[in-house]
């Protein structure tokens, strides 16, 4: 619980954390930024890292001269592209094997029809999904993994992977560069970060609640039927 609280506090005050880190460790901050963006895009177990907020705040620090804008953009694009590629390769290597184990215990929890639908969806809309997913927290973490599982072609994936990374990084870093240090933005920076966290968490929660609600009516009907008997 204390670890979670510390993490939330760190995320909410990530601007202060970066400011202190830059002051104490200088250019090592670039390595930290690389690792965070790489981890969010490359590891499916870390979808809640504050990628959007980090890009925006990084741009704001570049505007003050504490970070080099060109180095920051190049570094974050690289981290984003490499992260997505690793995620894709993991999905490509693991996905088919997981769905072809023929072990009853595993296959009980897997849906071959869903995998086929995913493959067909990426065949039709995979490119747009990879690009647009960059701007949707949580989704951007899982999109490259699913693309790998569905066996999307490497060349096609990398084209849209780079295009999405370029748009995502340039848009958010430059927004931070030009607007991040405005008094109004500084005053409500915590709110902006909270909105970013909510954008990541709320869809997952709503999806879980919706799934549960869809199951309950059926369960209620079964109970009523049994009661009538």
Automatic annotation (TrEMBL):
Major location (coarse): membrane
Indicate yes or no for the key word Cell membrane: yes
Q: Does the keyword Transmembrane helix apply?
A: yes
What parts of the sequence cross the membrane? 28-49, 69-90, 159-179, 191-210
Instruction: Note the topology in the membrane.
Output: Multi-pass membrane protein
Can you tell which superkingdom this protein's organism belongs to?
Bacteria
A family per Pfam: VTT_dom
The record places domain VTT at 49-177
List localization entries: Cell membrane
UniProt lists the family membership as follows: Belongs to the DedA family.
Q: What is this protein called?
A: VTT domain-containing protein
**Species of provenance:** Paraburkholderia denitrificans
């Amino acid at each position: 619980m204390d670890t979670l609280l510390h993490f939330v506090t760190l995320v909410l005050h990530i601007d202060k954390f970066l400011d202190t880190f830059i002051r104490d460790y200088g250019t090592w901050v670039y390595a930290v930024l690389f690792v965070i963006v790489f981890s969010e895009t490359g590891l499916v177990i870390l979808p809640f890292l504050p990628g959007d907020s980090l890009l925006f705040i990084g741009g704001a620090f570049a505007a003050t001269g504490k970070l080099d804008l060109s180095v920051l953009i190049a570094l974050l694009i690289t981290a984003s592209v490499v992260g997505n590629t690793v995620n894709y390769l993991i999905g490509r290597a693991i996905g088919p094997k997981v769905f072809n184990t023929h072990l009853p215990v595993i296959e009980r929890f897997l849906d071959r029809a869903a995998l086929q639908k995913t493959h067909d969806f990426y065949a039709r809309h995979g490119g747009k999904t990879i690009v647009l997913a960059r701007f949707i927290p949580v989704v951007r973490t899982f999109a490259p993994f699913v693309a790998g599982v569905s066996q999307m072609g490497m060349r096609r994936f990398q084209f849209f992977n780079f295009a999405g990374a370029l748009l995502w990084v340039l848009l958010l870093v430059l927004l931070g560069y030009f607007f991040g240090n405005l008094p109004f933005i500084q005053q409500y920076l915590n709110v902006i970060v909270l909105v970013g966290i909510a954008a990541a968490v709320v869809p997952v929660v709503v999806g879980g609640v919706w799934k549960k609600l869809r199951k309950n009516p059926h369960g209620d009907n079964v109970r009523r039927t049994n009661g009538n008997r």
